[in-house]
Amino acid sequence: MVMSSLKLQDLIEEIRGAKTQAQEREVIQKECAHIRASFRDGDPLHRHRQLAKLLYVHMLGYPAHFGQMECLKLIASPRFIDKRVGYLGAMLLLDERQDAHLLITNSIKNDLNQGIQAVQGLALCTLSTMGSAEMCRDLATEVEKLLLERSPYVRKKAVLTAVHMIRKVPELSDTFLPVCAKLLHERHHGVLLGTITLITELCERSPAALKHFRKVVPQLVQILRTLVTTGYSTEHSISGVSDPFLQVQILRLLRILGRNHEESSESMNDLLAQVATNTDTSRNAGSAVLFETVLTIVDIRSAAGLRVLAVNILGRFLLNSDKNIRYVALTSLLRLVQSDHSAVQRHRPTVVECLREPDASLSRRALELSLALVNSSNVRAMTQELQGFLESCPLDLRADCASGILLAAERFAPTKRWHIDTILRVLTMAGSHVRDDAVANLTQLIGGAQELHAYSVRRLYSALAQDISQQPLVQVAAWCIGEYGDLLLEGSCEETEPLQVEEEEVLALLERVLQSHMSLPATRGYALTALMKLSTRLRGDNNRIRQVVSIYGSCLDVELQQRAVEYNTLFRKYDHMRAAILEKMPLVDRGGPQADEEVKESKEANHLLEPAPVPTEPQASKLLDLLDLLDGPSEDSQQPPPVDPSPEGTLIHLLDLPCAPLAPAPIPNLKVFEREGLQLNLSFVRPPGTPTLLLITATATNASEGDVTHFICQAAVPKSFQLQLQAPSGDTVPAQGGLPVTQVLRILNPNKAPLRLKLRLTYNHYGRSVQEIFEVNNVPVEAWQ
């Protein structure tokens, strides 16, 4: 006999009336026991009521898995009241991770073929919510038939179900292609909106569908033009904008169809200009349509004037009072700054104004855009604005702002003096937030500007006397005083105000740096070395310097102690050599990785073109020694590689004659990956001077009709190898055989072991994210033997 239980309404009231969580659990456990008993007794008349209560319990977070099979029984029931609760329970309690969901496939198929609209709607809703790939394949034919059903209620739900099927099983694209063209003539708002969404999904996932639907661009243009001029229906207008949801969806579809296609882009240029000029932006609905229009103009091959119009619209968005609209405008302008730099430059004053926004996300995006707008013509004005922002910006933005100013000054500095002044201001305002290489870059810059030595040392001395808390500034000032302290005391610089400095003042300032609790060990090392160098540049007695140096001979910091002990030894035993050892540092060339690579390539080219002696072992051993600094000593790397015992090499060593080495045989290229038009090829080069080094160039090409974006190639090798991944040439592989993306892998193989690579490719293609992991085991023997 079925135990008496509460009605759903009574259960809700009792649960809400529970004063503690323990009381709530007690009520639910008691009712769940009644529900289980009812399910066991098989009460068909009240099964749907018991399941409805169980669904409410599930919504509160309590376990309700024991009701899954009851959902199947209710779905198979001929009564509509049972089916309604059964399908609702299936959507809440079942998903594709559980095998039980496959048991309702036949029930859904029967209900789709019943002809009752309400039942068909329930089945379609359930299928679009929790249908797995297997269910989608089995029921695709039934959904295709319902797309042409007379009732717009069923057609709308069938379209949305087809969208879910395409997302789950992209291979079903061909099933829905013919029907979509007919549905574009639909006048029902929901069906048309769903059809546009379905076509968008098809085009993003299938190149064949993209090519097929480019034929309907004129029809889409006509639909959108009708929306803009006459409106679709008054009931779907929002704030005076005719059906903004449908407009936005059509614009997104046009953006996909017009991307990298000249003919489609040209056919929609006039319409986009009309939408951009006639849309009211006083309400959010109009701003949304206008923003989608801008994105479409930017992505397709639009006319130059239309792109300028799009940038101007984003400029107007920057003046909007809504923070979200301003953020969207800044983000979009940041994307456009590379392709339409001059058009974005016109809105530079407005962008700079956004730096003062109290909203952190807005000011960060404005900072990124401001740094991207800096060029050789506006570097002075923009740097001044950015320095003003640096003084008052939040702490979390200070590092990005300081590093951005330093990079801009390094790229576009009009003069060396301006460059030095700019770096000094940044170090003074935010020295603790700059990049690690800022000190080395400034010392290199000052060292290379001989005419500015006196000016630099005076500026740095004045800054150091005012503030010793900014550690990078203190380090540069200590280095400069040590190198050019004699110029500081001469007082012969005409570019600065007269500054009379005594030797005792300089020494006292450096001692103050050494004794300050704010000084880092590295800063103390700079100051101690500066004192030591001043012992050869000052004309007074060196006893004070010797006393300070001897004090740090017992310092707890090992690096500082070692430095002080060596300097004391220099005073006591090698005083006659001190002046020569402490001479001014010679200028050291500091180039970026790209410059270093170019120099190396040119040297290798000259080496191949000119006769030269056979390379000897120390070159390879030096490279291995450098790697040992990172990985620790190894027995294999300590021994130089054996000399090639070929007859030609032996003869050259015997006669000690210069002779050009034989050119190695070319290593064949290797195709390691191909999918949907994206192809990755590897080419191999072994530099003649370093036989254990292998240079691999990974080249990604794209023959499909959609761009491959956010492309990242990562590699791994066994532990016996040394791998260095250099920066790629870009992260977007253009469609239809555009400029390929290349990346160089430097692999050191001291044991000449067989090479195995593990590659991971991550990218976005046709709107979906793809990740591929695979091994390359067929590297040519010539690449590693």
TrEMBL record:
Gene3D superfamilies, per database record: 2.60.40.1230, Leucine-rich Repeat Variant (1.25.10.10)
Main location: membrane
Example of a GO cellular component annotation carried by this entry: synapse
Keyword Protein biosynthesis: no
Pfam families: Adaptin_N (PF01602), Alpha_adaptinC2 (PF02883)
GAE domain residues: 665-780
Keyword terms, alphabetized: Cytoplasmic vesicle, Golgi apparatus, Membrane, Protein transport, Transport
Membrane-protein topology: Peripheral membrane protein
Annotated segments matching region Disordered: 589-616, 630-649
Location in the cell: Cytoplasmic vesicle membrane; Endomembrane system; Golgi apparatus
GO biological process, one term: vesicle-mediated transport
Keyword Transferase: no
Top-rank taxon: Eukaryota
Recorded family membership: Belongs to the adaptor complexes large subunit family.
Record protein name field: AP-1 complex subunit gamma
Organism: Myotis lucifugus (Little brown bat)
Name of encoding gene: AP1G2
